[in-house]
Amino acid sequence: MHVKKGLGPVKIEKFLYGLYEERIARSLASQSIPRHVGVILDGNRRWARSFGEPAATGHRKGADKIADFLTWSEDLGVEVVTLWMLSTDNLHRPQEELQALLDIIEDAVRELAETGRWRLRVVGKLDLLPAELAASLRRLEQQTHGVSGLHVNVAIGYGGRHEIADAVKSLLVSYDEQGCSLGQAIEQLCVEDIADHLYTKGQPDPELVIRTSGEQRLGGFLLWQSAHSEFYFCEAFWPDFRRVDYLRALRAFSTRERRLGK
User: Fold this and answer.
1) Strands 36-40 and 119-123
2) What is the pLDDT of residues 142-151, one digit of tens each?
3) pLDDT value of position 200
4) So what CATH class is 32-160+205-253?
5) pTM of this structure
6) Which residues are catalytic?
7) Where are the domains of the chain?
8) How many whole angstroms separate alpha carbon 209 and alpha carbon 231?
9) Strands 230-233, 208-211: parallel, antiparallel or unpaired by DSSP?
10) Checking phi first, is residue 41 left (phi over 0); if not, alpha (psi -120 to 50) or beta?
């Protein structure tokens, strides 16, 4: 391998990582790429704390990473990405931090919508968010309705238990509208019916779920949909997540035997 003279250590490192990335990318067969990837964007606050910065700095840095991740996903042939940007538990954070985070999330979703590249679906308990923010998110979602590119679920005010409860409520309403009695509803209720009322209805379940920051738990993310998902836990904080980290996750996914409970 020939490396040009005069390259500094940083440029050499980038050059070598570039070669390493492409080596992993070439090793991935197209049939091993998951259709749907879920990501828990974790570690923004700890990333900021490591630099002595306020939490908002980490949240902004994390928001800046999203477009890169979606571009990588698009290039690799992923069809659906679900980004967990705010949990229902996060809504209990100190008001000053929460308001800054909500503003950053709204800006991030607006920037994604304005690219015109990705079709957005907002998933979560929007009734728990400030009314103006919820309305803005719905408008931004509608703005991308005709986009045919990568589908992106932005999970905001999201909790897996809340989603399942909402799905059951929605299903019961549909039974009521059909004139079903409680007994008939109980008799008819099945797994497939609940799935049809989830926030992600009509989409494939995630084959791969990635969580950054070294934490090894789902925390309620896509509880129903992830029954047969493969999980990958990455040590990097979300703002530091690189394409090579993504490729490593996909490489790990491609080596696993997916029996889907059989």
Assistant:
1) unpaired
2) 999 999 989 9
3) 97
4) alpha beta
5) 0.90
6) 42, 90
7) 32-160+205-253
8) 5
9) parallel
10) beta
